[in-house]
Design brief:
The chain has one domain. The chain is built from 4 helices and no strands. The termini are far apart.
């Protein structure tokens, strides 16, 4: 007879892992805001720019923002992210477009 699985322990381990991943995501998004200089915007401006980005359905505009974000990461123009944590690009693909929506021409 084999040992029964401890579902409660497995569930707790998964919840801990999910909490850790969420914390890391929030930290990386904060680093992205700082690296792009968007931390110079007030909270309302930044929130408005992010809402406009999230609501935009124009594929061409989103692709242009994604291209500009990729160029930002390739140029190494990050401002103040500490060296060990510079791999901000490992977050989800769309946050790399924040720079363009926050202050770029053509943002909604």
């Amino acid at each position: 007879m084999r040992k029964p699985r401890d579902f409660d322990a497995e569930l707790k381990a998964l919840e801990d892992k999910a909490r850790e991943l969420k914390t890391r995501k929030v930290q990386q998004l904060g680093e992205l805001v700082i690296a792009t200089g968007a931390d110079q915007l007030n909270t309302d401006e930044l929130a408005g720019a992010l809402v406009a980005l999230a609501e935009t359905k124009d594929t061409a505009k989103r692709e242009a923002w994604a291209k500009r974000g990729a160029m930002f990461f390739e140029s190494g123009s990050r401002r103040s992210a500490p060296a060990p944590q510079r791999n901000v690009r490992s977050t989800a693909g769309q946050p790399s477009s924040i720079q363009s929506s926050a202050g770029g021409p053509g943002s909604q």
